[in-house]
């Protein structure tokens, strides 16, 4: 049912939909509030003792990763790269992250101080994902090509 809005003349009308309103960075729990929630008996990691907040250095690293991610997506998405692959230290499996999911995970880390629970993607095509190192090297190569012959290049005669 659509929300109702009371206008200036006292008339009730349906609330108008606004683009982007109600969009969530995190997935919505389809069982939220459901007494038959299959995960209701599982341990909630939020009940654990709170983690230490990110240090200033860790926070700066995450902010830099977010900025780098924007550059990598702008350069690599047009050529068919869907995201980044990261070798998981916990399970020793490659995890494939689309651009938006990785961005959401980094923002979550900034706001909560803890990483999200993760699972490997379902049947990803590894040909559409690159590593952080590859993306960084690609971005550096594009930067070097664009600045070739400019004042930014170090002077060889010095």
What can you see in these coordinates?
The chain is of the alpha+beta class and 158 residues long. The chain has a domain at 54-146. The chain has three helices and five strands. It has helices at residues 56-76, 99-112, 132-147; strands at residues 4-6, 12-14, 83-87, 94-98, 129-130. Strand 3 and strand 4 (94-98) form a beta hairpin. Helix 1 (56-76) runs antiparallel to helix 2 and helix 1 (56-76) packs across helix 3 (132-147). It is extended, with a radius of gyration of 22 Å. It starts with a strand and ends in an 11-residue tail after the last helix.
Spell out the blueprint of helices and strands.
Layout: E1 4-6, E2 12-14, H1 56-76, E3 83-87, E4 94-98, H2 99-112, E5 129-130, H3 132-147
Parallel strand pairs: 3-5
Antiparallel strand pairs: 1-2, 3-4
């Amino acid at each position: 049912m659509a929300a109702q809005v009371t206008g200036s003349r006292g008339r009730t009308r349906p609330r108008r939909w606004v683009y982007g309103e109600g969009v969530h960075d995190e997935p919505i729990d389809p069982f939220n509030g459901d007494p038959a929630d299959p995960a209701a008996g599982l341990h909630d990691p939020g009940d654990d003792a709170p983690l230490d907040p990110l240090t200033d250095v860790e926070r700066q690293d995450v902010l830099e990763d977010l900025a780098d991610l924007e550059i990598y997506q702008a350069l690599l998405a047009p050529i068919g790269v869907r995201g980044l692959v990261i070798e998981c230290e916990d399970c020793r499996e490659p995890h494939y992250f689309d651009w938006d999911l990785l961005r959401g995970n980094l923002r979550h880390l900034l706001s909560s101080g803890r990483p999200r629970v993760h699972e490997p993607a379902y049947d990803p095509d590894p040909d559409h994902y690159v590593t952080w190192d590859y993306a960084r090297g690609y971005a550096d190569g594009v930067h070097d090509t664009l600045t070739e012959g400019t004042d930014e290049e170090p002077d060889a005669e010095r």
